[in-house]
## 1
Amino acid sequence: MDYIITTEGLTKKYKTFISVNDCSLHIRKGTIYGFLGPNGAGKSTTMKMLLGLTAPTKGRFTIDGRRFPEDRLAILKEIGSFIESPSFYANLTGRENLDIIRRILGLPKDSVDDALELVGLTEFGNRLAKKYSLGMKQRLGLAGALLGRPPILILDEPTNGLDPSGIHEIRILIKSLPGLYNCTIMISSHMLSEVELMADDIGILNHGRLLFEGTLDDLRQNTRKAGMSADHKLIENQLEDVFLAMIEQDNAARKQRAKL
Ligand SMILES: Nc1ncnc2c1ncn2[C@@H]1O[C@H](COP(=O)(O)OP(=O)(O)OP(=O)(O)O)[C@@H](O)[C@H]1O
Ligand SMILES: [Mg+2]
């Protein structure tokens, strides 16, 4: 299998608290990988480690054949990222904000217009960032990640705060990117229903541990095995239930272990 990102036993410990626990991910090149888990599961922490924003306590990872930490800079050059809520210079326009990132990355001038167009912000490029709506700010964050069309995108809840049509538009955009320029996307969310509409593969994290990794079809198979329903339509609807049941089961097992 042609994996572009693999992690081996990736672990992050804050004092005594384990935020990410022995996490081994496998992300296929040219696909969309949905990274799921409830609040506090460790999604952002994992992504921050991949971006070199926080150091792993244990474990290692490889991105496009390059190893962390030896090739940290080369890795960073290949990744466009959107982590939590990106911040911008409020008194600069959207275009000016992107231009600052563009210059830091040493990209050609027209990459700003390209990114604005990709996220549908062309007509608002000259508006001050402080006058952007929440959805426009999310789009600007996404444009920042897309500058120079990097081969890998790491997007942490990019549809957070968007209205339903905004979520739909961003989803269509994200879904189109691998076909548009052959990139690989890792995207986090706590909504399986949202991710299943765009992801090829998914990883489910709970309390820092990877509970499941595989294709949506694998998860559907699990649903069938669990005897949730023989009816295909119902299975579709119950995928979210399986996801929630998986988390609940893990939480219950955890409580049981804690009691012993
Ligand atoms: N700097 C830090 N110091 C101590 N604990 C931290 C730190 N950063 C994160 N954590 C803890 O690590 C756990 C995982 O946090 P993380 O932000 O990775 O979760 P998440 O899956 O992204 O959640 P959400 O869906 O709410 O964004 C949480 O319990 C969080 O409080
Ligand atoms: Mg997070």
Note: The domain at 3-259 is CATH 3.40.50.300 (Rossmann fold).
## 2
Amino acid sequence: MNVRNIKALAPFKGYVVTGIRFEEIGAQINLDFDKRSGPRCPHCQGKLPRNKIGRRAVMDCPMPHGSIVYLVFPTVQGLCQSCNRYVTTCPKEVHPDCHATWRLMRLVSSWAALATNSEVAAMFEISDGTVRRYDKIVLKEDTPPPCLDGLTKLLIDEKSVRKGHCYVTIILNGETGELLHMQEGRKKECVESFFGQLTEGQRAGIKAVGIDRSGAYQAAVEAWLPNAEIVYDRFHLVMNVNQAVDEVRRSQCRRASKEDRQLLKGQRYLILGNQENLDSDGREKLDRLLEANEAISTAYILKEQFRALFSYQRKGWAMRALANWCALALASGLAPFQRLARSFTQHGERVCGFVKHGLTSALIEGFNNLISRMVHKACGFRDLDYLELKLRHHSVMR
Ligand SMILES: [Zn+2]
């Protein structure tokens, strides 16, 4: 076989390619020490005597047609005079503990961002566990530590990552969407451990924190962040209102005659979806439904009005609109909406804080979708460190 410029196969510092052999199972690239430099200490690059020579084989990126490639290189063990410790030589491009080259591990890791780990494992003919190990090492190496300086806004949320109620608390930078902290559980301790990592100055710089109304984080935010206003984030507020609509729908369903129940059944998404996304058929169905049932019709109008709140550019206007909404909700006679109205009246500032602080729900929604996709792809995450690494990498590298 005529391979030109075989040096290009492994341009590793201090080594030269001496040949490539193709065998049934794959290919083997042979390296030797570059004669000009000889064996070098991997820590300090000091010269080592060329004795006790062994050989080591590690896995390298596969050839384009998919066959396995091994990289075989000589190793020298000895006492490095400058470090004064026993060392074993190894090209910098080979991971010291993984029997693999960094370029293979990077390739596996970039595929793991696109496909499930089992698919990647099959592709590279390695085990699922090895894919996870390579991916973790590469992500750890390539993802910078969280940037905690200059934080002004935070978003805090909880998310289920596995069936059987395994929750994690996540904290995002409210401006960039960077994942700053993830911890198992959804108690206030989960955010306190993050606040504890911040300096006093960093904590004082935080002006707004977007959270869910019902979460356990409010007290911790109040205790730790002296200058932060709590803002109820839009994503959760809209969810609260949708839940109220659904509660009304279900109670109407229970009370309805057999005939009406037929009309109400299975219409959840019709009622909860955004009107502008409906086609003409859907709109007709919705109109018929709203005409037939007064309570659902009222709930629907309240939901749409609440959504309109988020179009206000000034907090004063939003506050007035919220007050109107609360009055309507209280007068509606629908218990779930009355409950919401009482809470919103009490915390109007927090409901309308999004205008002042410009906190949108896009970051939280985007992040929730990302977690759902990853968890779904991996059929639930057992290794939470791994999930955190993947999420952090994604949130930083977008
Ligand atoms: Zn050394």
Note: The chain has three domains: 6-94, 153-233+360-397, 234-357.
## 3
Amino acid sequence: MATAPACVAALTGIDYRRAPEGDFGGRVFLRRVAADGRVSHHLSLAEHGAAYWLDHLAFREALRANPELRSRSGGLKRRLAAKHDDVEAYTRAKTLLVREALLAAGHTPRSGLAASSDERALGTLCGMGADEGYFGERVAAVYDAHSTGMFDSSVVEPAVDRLAQLAGDGRALEFAIGTGRIGLPLAERGVALAGIDNSEAMLERLREKPGAERIEVVSGDMATTRVAGEFSLVYLVFNTIFNLTTQDGQVACFENAAAHLRSGGRFVIEARVPELQRLPLGQTVLPWRADPGGLSFYVYDVVTQRLSGQHFYLEEGRVQPSPIEMRYAWPAELDLMARVAGMRLEHRWAGWRGEPFTALSPAHVSVYVKA
Ligand SMILES: C[S@@+](CC[C@H](N)C(=O)[O-])C[C@H]1O[C@@H](n2cnc3c(N)ncnc32)[C@H](O)[C@@H]1O
């Protein structure tokens, strides 16, 4: 990097400009800008052996080794280039894809591709590699098959009916839209829908499905990413508030929901009631299922509210672990988060049909309204 200033000076003479927001991990970033303001080239100067250099080479090797990754990466570039000039959205989506690919290839990213300190503070699950197995390529490839029960029309339709009714004639935004289990049928009803998710692998599955073109799909973290415009409904289903593994992250998610809502708009959360009543004093593990397809356990830490889902799938005679890290929250804690974010609880039901919530309800659908 000692020679970088001289290189930058020479490049400035042929229309390159420094773009310091792109400097990270030992890289100096420049753009070549034509007289009409259009950017014709991006150029990175990197020190041999620096974090950016190593991450970049590892991504190149992953692309060489994996034709499917090549086509996803190319598809992402073309799609985002064709859609808009939003450099920030492009960078966010590309960073997620590269990070997931590196982790899946067993390379821990060190440069700007590693989790940011903000993401770490908010407890965003972004270590989405094959080993971590959260919502990276390996999980995305089997997500719909492993969650077949959740795709059943008896589960999906009441949720979609309720969400369509709550959206009214306004726009709706799904946090953590995943492969579109709820978003696709809701958009099919004519609700104008946007969806955020921070797994490019999950979003890729969504984009492949018929009807996805109706949805404005945005790569990003539901705790921090803003989608332009105002919404009458933001919703977050299938326990996914717990995927933010810190209280700060969950509060930020409520605040982000409120920031998208018009006054009187609603934020809907569907989540399990933590099974603390089933835990005898001192016990930490609860079985969830045991069937020919696999085994699942939940590990509770009642001090930190950490909840680890330990799922094991039996596939072709082999055991495939698929762990997930969460932070559980009692419904009353979620209500307080809503108040912190300027919303109040309007309804708490045991299910989407408005069933009464009781001491025995295993899950809740909670509707918060913005002042
Ligand atoms: C259990 S799936 C639910 C997907 C979909 N809503 C459904 O009901 O099938 C959880 C989703 O949350 C996404 N996710 C987890 N943490 C996230 C975060 N901090 N920001 C955005 N998406 C996140 C994952 O990538 C995954 O797609």
Note: Residues 124-125, 135, 176-178, 181-182, 196-199, 202, 221-223, 237-238, 240, 243-244 surround S-adenosylmethionine (CB under 6 Å).
